[in-house]
């Protein structure tokens, strides 16, 4: 089989990556209408938020298994199966009348996302190395951001028609399947079984646990935006789902622009310095959102937070990919996917009692305070380790 053109291979990877943000973005603006449709269900305030966050739990549970499977048996077959399941489980709630069945489909969607995101991350690490990998990871994050904006806005417009309509966007998966089959070759890498088992490959856990903890924390705080912001806007008098989708999409668009510059940022700064910068930007943005009294002010705060959010995912993926042994790369990326999506799932569970105590605006202000503390901590760590960080940045540029 002829090797596909590099541009087509890259484009396919980027289009696959967009599907991960769609898992929640597409239906986030319809949450208030979905709540009204099932308002008779006890505890609907929490259940309706779980419609968005439940996929994240099953992504977190399924990603490590996906990582082990692709290390042993290869990437492509699992990716194809995951994308097919994504299309079926994602779109089916659009015709269901039972909230429990909708939640079951959302759980299956989460398993599919775990498979496709882990595989996509491993393929990027397989296909690219050094500065080129940083460039590709930046583009991946940018595509995810653009996809978040497009599908958030589209989901909002469809939600104004009916709360069921946004589920149709998951049929996008079936447009991507032919591209995967034709343009993503199976990479030639050492399989875990051939190398004595991926579980017996020595992993740099001291670094990986730090990466995983940061990924989970960052995503947990970020997820206040898609899950809680539509409700905050309603309290500010914004009733349009399309406007809610547009507001949430602003942070992803700004993040996309920043993501495209990730490789350049990485040449200048070490991983911990980047964490300090991105947490500081997110902190300022969340404080601005928490203090906002108008739609325009909220959008401004989201734009500021997007400056940091655009660096989060590529920095975590590049850091993990750089230290991961080739034979265990799937497992390392699977655990990174688990960390990111566990943060998504935990977010509404932790936020709900906080919102009950201090309100929606107070929750954003509290998140801003936590982000400020993280920014200060990593700023201090980066300052004390600045000679080593400069050396790492130079090595990454070579």
UniProtKB/TrEMBL annotation:
Per its UniProt record, what Pfam families does this chain match?
Answer: MFS_1 (PF07690)
Q: Which domain of life is it from?
A: Bacteria
Instruction: Write down the InterPro entries for this protein, in alphabetical order.
Output: MFS, MFS_dom, MFS_Efflux_Transporters, MFS_trans_sf, Sugar_transporter_CS, Tet-R_TetA/multi-R_MdtG-like
Record carries keyword Cell membrane: yes
* Gene3D superfamilies documented for this protein: MFS general substrate transporter like domains
The answer to whether UniProt assigns keyword Plastid to this entry is no
- Where's it found, cell-wise? Cell membrane
According to the record, the segments passing through the membrane are 49-71, 78-102, 108-129, 141-159, 165-184, 205-225, 237-257, 269-289, 295-312, 332-351, 363-383
Q: Pinpoint the Major facilitator superfamily (MFS) profile domain residues.
A: 9-390
Which CDD domains does this one have? MFS_arabinose_efflux_permease_like
Q: Which UniProt keywords apply?
A: Cell membrane, Membrane, Transmembrane, Transmembrane helix
**How does this chain sit within the bilayer?**
Multi-pass membrane protein
The protein's job, in short, is:
Resistance to tetracycline by an active tetracycline efflux. This is an energy-dependent process that decreases the accumulation of the antibiotic in whole cells. This protein functions as a metal-tetracycline/H(+) antiporter.
What family name appears in the similarity comment? Answer: Belongs to the major facilitator superfamily. TCR/Tet family.
List the PANTHER family hit by this protein, alphabetically: CHLORAMPHENICOL EFFLUX PUMP RV0191, PURINE EFFLUX PUMP PBUE
Protein name from the UniProt record: MFS transporter
Say which species the protein is native to. Answer: Archangium lansingense
Q: What is the lineage of its organism?
A: Bacteria, Pseudomonadati, Myxococcota, Myxococcia, Myxococcales
């Amino acid at each position: 089989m002829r090797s596909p053109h590099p541009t087509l291979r890259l484009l396919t990877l980027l289009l696959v990556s967009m599907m991960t943000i769609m898992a929640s973005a597409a239906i986030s603006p319809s949450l208030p209408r979905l709540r009204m449709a099932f308002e008779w269900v006890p505890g609907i305030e929490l259940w309706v938020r779980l419609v968005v966050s439940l996929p994240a739990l099953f992504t977190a549970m399924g990603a490590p298994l996906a990582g082990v499977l692709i290390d042993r048996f290869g990437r492509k077959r699992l990716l194809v199966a995951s994308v097919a399941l994504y299309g079926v489980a994602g779109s089916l709630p659009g015709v269901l009348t039972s909230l429990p069945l909708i939640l079951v489909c959302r759980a299956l969607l989460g398993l599919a996302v775990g498979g496709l995101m882990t595989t996509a991350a491993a393929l990027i690490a397989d296909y690219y190395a050094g500065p080129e990998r940083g460039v590709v990871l930046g583009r991946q994050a940018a595509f995810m951001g653009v996809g978040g904006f497009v599908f958030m806005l589209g989901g909002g417009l469809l939600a104004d028609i009916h709360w069921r309509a946004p589920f149709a966007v998951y049929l996008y998966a079936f447009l991507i399947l032919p591209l995967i089959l034709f343009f993503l070759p199976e990479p030639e890498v050492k399989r875990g079984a051939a190398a004595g088992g991926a579980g017996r490959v020595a992993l740099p856990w001291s670094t990986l646990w730090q990466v995983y903890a940061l990924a989970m924390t960052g995503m947990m705080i970020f997820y206040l935006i898609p899950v809680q912001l539509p409700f905050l806007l309603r309290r500010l008098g914004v009733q349009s789902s399309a406007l809610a989708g547009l507001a949430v999409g602003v942070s992803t668009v700004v993040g996309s622009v920043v993501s495209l510059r990730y490789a350049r940022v990485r040449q200048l700064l070490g991983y911990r310095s980047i964490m300090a910068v991105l947490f500081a930007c997110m902190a300022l943005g969340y404080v601005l959102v928490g203090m906002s009294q108008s739609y325009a002010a909220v959008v401004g705060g989201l734009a500021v937070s997007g400056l940091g959010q655009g660096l989060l995912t590529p920095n975590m993926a590049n850091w993990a990919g750089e230290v991961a042994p080739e034979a265990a790369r799937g497992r390392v990326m699977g655990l990174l996917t688990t960390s990111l999506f566990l943060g998504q799932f935990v977010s509404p569970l932790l936020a709900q009692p906080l919102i009950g105590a201090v309100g929606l605006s107070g929750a954003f202000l509290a998140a801003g305070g936590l982000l400020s503390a993280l920014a200060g901590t990593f700023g201090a760590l980066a300052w004390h380790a600045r000679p080593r960080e400069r050396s790492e940045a130079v090595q990454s540029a070579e």
